[in-house]
Amino acid sequence: MTANAPVSESLGLYGVDASADEQRTAFRDGRVPVAVYGMGKIGLPLSLVYAEATGAVTGVDIDSERVATLNRGVNPFDHEPGVSALLSNSVADGRFASTTDGEAAAAAARLHVIVVPTVIDEADDPDLSALEAAAETVRAGLDPGDTVFVESTVPPGTCEDVIEPILTAGDREPGEFGLAHTPERTASGRALRDIRGSYPKVVGGVDAESGRVAELVYGVLTDNDIVRTSDARTAECVKLFEGVYRDVNIALANELATLTDEFGVDVVETIEAANTQPYCDILTPGAGVGGHCIPYYPHFLLAGIEGGAPLIRTAREVNERMPGFVVETLVDALAADGGVEGATVALFGVAYRAGVPETRASPAIDIAHRLDRLGVTVLAVDPILDELPVMPGERVSLDEITGREVDAAVLVTAHDEFRSIDWTAFEREGPDGTRRGIPVVDGRQALDLSGTAHRVYTVGRGWS
Predict the structure, then answer these.
(1) Catalytic site residues?
(2) Domains of the chain, residue spans
């Protein structure tokens, strides 16, 4: 199934003899059919924003069940505000349809947008296999005058060194079609808002005409500015530099947080005071860094560097050590209370970010494995996940956890739902009749357990 599009009147945007105004009009009228490859958590919202501008968008995905769901107008990612209604309306209006037949979609399209996952393998090297497969699909239907946008986050040089050779294998030549990197700048839980214009849109082409086409198209889609870089390689680096900046900054905050006791100060309070100086912008420490972006982007940069970039490497190491710091702090407290092996620990939050039902690289997974290796029983609580990722531990509901005997607790993700927890339920009566608490590690500066008997270690603040 493909979206309604007057294919016989279709128009390419690359190298055509038409004014910019004529091209914008053709794009808005649906005479530039669009195929978006990858109907994931970014690809679907991006497709729907395209469909708002032009009623000729086809979403391509290899998952037949997902495609069928989309064609019924049902959103598989219901945590994204606004997507469900926009999808339903776009399908009903014929502005958007989805298919598993990527080659047919490519043959009908004049603008091809690739937004498939790019990850790292077990050796921390970029795995571009999904991107390469999507480019092979595009090549099957690529015509002169077509343009290809790569939205996926990629290592520097990917468009020129990986994608262009795939697209030109056969009877296509460089210069017959456009190719640009147009990196997504989207956070889970706010995809539509970000795509429509939360931030300036960065675009960069492998040649000047490709950059011009990207600037024209995204000038229609976004309400924000367009930042056109000198080439695709520069645009590829922009997204990576953004992620690495955050990784390094968070690593600084995390390293300072591990020195709370040595400094004898509340590091979080100190950071907040330091940040009143406009030249200082230290981020907030925590139990670790997860998600689809920050843990991976440094490796995309490091893949092409032999032995250099010590700051980037060290920052990644610091952030990867934070789950271990949390476990060490908890273990020291358990040891003081009678022992670690055989203890039961409540793990609050498995999603990598509050309110977002995703677990990619979540520090909770590492924490659970470390505790399990020490002989600890893990009770995992996360009210927004349908199921736990592969990790040690018994899943326990939010309603049930206060009825379980636990020896300690750690908050990894500060879901709003955790505000309702009755922490006094974890208190015990001591031999002298007084109430005894448990050690709690707060990895997100989110708990106020004053009025309870618990001892709380807050990352960046210390024991209270």
Answers:
(1) 239, 293
(2) 7-230, 233-464
